[in-house]
Specification:
single chain, 5 helices
Length: 96
């Protein structure tokens, strides 16, 4: 019997999914929590590992309490580079 890689991969994904049981009896995975809160799966997994209290687990993301949202640091670097290039172009055009 030969199984395709796709079939094995989907089986492994189901086997490795951890279902966390919260104090109120509800069950959730880190992927479901990440989609609900709009955070990464890693952040959701960290919340579930720290606490089983639903109030803490479902608490909305607050940038003051943690790191910056995914992608904002990269965008800021791009904006800074564009501003630097614009300033250099102004300087170059002044001296022509």
């Amino acid at each position: 019997m030969v199984l395709s890689l796709r079939a094995v991969h989907t089986l492994m994904r189901k086997l490795r999914t951890i279902i966390y049981k919260l104090d109120d009896g509800s069950e959730i995975t880190s992927r479901e929590l990440a989609e609900q809160l709009g955070v990464t799966e890693s952040a959701a997994r960290n919340r579930l590992n720290r606490s089983r209290n639903p109030k803490l687990v479902y608490k909305p993301y607050n940038p003051r309490n943690g790191g910056k949202p995914l992608g904002t640091q990269k965008k800021q670097k791009i904006i800074d580079a564009k501003l630097r290039d614009a300033e250099m172009m102004k300087l170059a055009l002044k001296h022509i």
